[in-house]
Structures are given as structure tokens and as C-alpha cells.
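Hello,

Our lab assistant flagged a job as stuck in the queue for most of the afternoon. It eventually completed. Since we weren't sure the result was trustworthy after the delay, we are filing this so someone can double-check. Below is the sequence as submitted and the structure that was eventually returned. Let us know if re-running is recommended.
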Amino acid sequence: MEKAIREKILGGGRLTREEAVSLFKNGDLLTLGSLANAKRWEIHPEPVVTYIMDRNINYTNICISGCKFCAFHRKQGSSEAFVLGWNKLAQKIEETLELGGVQILLQGGLHPTLKIDFYEEMLSRIKSHYPIHIHGFSPPEIVHIAKISQLSVRETLNRLIHSGLNSIPGGGAEILVDRVRKAISPNKCSSLEWLEVMEEAHRLGLKTTATMMFGHIETVEDRVDHLFKIRDLQERTGGFTAFIPWPFQPKNTRLDSIKPSTGVDYLRTLALSRLALDNVLNIQASWVTQGPKVAQVALHFGANDLGSTMIEENVVSATGVYFRLSREEMIHLIQDAGFRAQRRNMLYEWLD
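-- returned structure --
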């Protein structure tokens, strides 16, 4: 690793794209982790790692996107296709509240016929029955709902907010480079559309998260471009509460010939994320894809959050990767790594 880059980071300087690429390619693992850990303590000086109690609810698995990396979606008419009815949705929310959950992550496929009135009714009904935060509809869903309903993105967001939407998850970002997106998810929104949805949401007062799914056909330069597009948008709006990088899981997908990312590649990417995204306060470790032990190491490679206890999760588990943690296990995991566990909400406000 170039001494000048290391000194720049330790002196509070900001990485350029070229420096970030060089850091990833040439920096040794432990030095990269040490620098990211130092940045983490600079941003979060208290020995606290946060987590949230929530549930991923997929309202439908019917999707026209046909992403090569997805093992969850089904075509309309398939015997395994579903659109979640109200009784089942209500049951899932009630179970979440009983377990101490404070929000639901509400996402689904790009359904070919459901227009905005379906989503408005679902949101309104949830809000009229349950005191729960709705973190829902990734940018590809927003773009799809807008197009099929013949609305602008701004109109779509306004109507969803009016019906009860509280924040937006960062799903569907994959890699924000269109060459990559056209190869792995040709029917999904472009990188520019993804960023425009997030910018519009931020302008309307919604907070969102951002993600990156790496380890498939992208290059290191593509990963860095992705990070800097997030950083640039955050510079304009300040609307991202957290960034979550996670490695592609190839099993049961049309990209199953790709060798899965290693734990080392994950930790390097996580550390680079913390160093490049100096204006995004929180970096989340992906125990869902990496398992609890690597997640503990990640807390010393720049991450300050362990995300959700995942009362329910369907998309990653469809690839055969299946990890689960109870609240007690999450707390033990954090404490065993040398930190104090703190429950939070989507805005990263601490809860008793």
C-alpha cells in the first residue's frame, strides 16, 4: 500500500477513485482492516454496535425482471407464485410486533399487473391497524410501479408516502454500472434511475439505505464507481442512513457457475466501503450471507451495525444460504466481539 494513501486516510483526507482502486488492489488485508477500523472509531467513538428487530415480508414473488442472480422470483401462473393476502400479511405483522419488532421490510417482485392503487391500499391498511414503521419498495419497484401506473416517480413516491410509506430500502442497486446491470438484470431500472429515485425520495423527506451486491461479473473499478456514486448523492442530499455491501450467492441462480466470494474478499470490500463512504454514518455487516463469525470480524473492519435479527428472510435463503439469529444470539454476538449491543430503529435512533 502506498504510504501516502495511508497517511492521507489517517489524517482525515478523502480518497479519490484512483486511490480507492489502488487501496483495494494493493493494500494487504490487515492494514486495510486497521484503517477502516480507525475510521469507524473516528465516526463512532462509543463501543456500541447497533441492530434492529424487524421482518422481511415479500408481498409477491411474481416478477418480470428475470434477474440472473435471483433464485426467489417466479413467473405469473407458476404453481409457486403468490401475492400475499391481507390475513397472511396481518399475521406476519402481529408476530413481528409480539417479538419486539419495530418495522417491516416490505418488498416484492416487479408484478406485471399490480398498479399503484394496490400498494396504496396495502400501506393504508397496515397503518390503520398496526403501529409499525414501513421500510418498503426498493427503487426498481418504485420505477416499475410508476411506469405501469403511468405516473412520474415523484407522483408515485408522494402517493406512497401519503398512504404510509416511512422509508426506502437500498435493494436493487446490485452494481451501479449499466454494463453490469444489462448483463445480469436487463429488465431492471438503470443505475441513473436507481439514483434518481433515491434523490427524489431524499428531497421528499424520506430516509433510505443503500446496498451493493458484489462478487459476480463486476470489476474492482466497478465496485469503486458504485461507492462513489453513493458518496456523490449523499453529498447532495444526506439521505442515506446506512450502506450494506453483501456478496452474491450463486447457488440455485442462473449464475451458479460463478465461484462465491470469499470471506477475505468480503472483508476487503467492507473495509473499502467504510473508507470511501466517509459521509455515510453507518456501515452494516452482512451476517445473513457471511454467518456470525465473519460478521464479528467485520465489526473490526469498519462495520458498526449488524442489521436485522431477520425474523423472516426469503430471498437469500432461496440460494441455499440460511443463517438465523435470535435477539439474544445477536446481543451475545456483539458482546463477544467486544462491544455493547444497542437496539435501534431505521433512523439509527437508540431504543430502550
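-- support follow-up --
The delay was a queue issue, not a problem with the job. The result is valid. Residues 313-323 have pLDDT under 50 and may be disordered. The first helix runs from residue 3 to 10.
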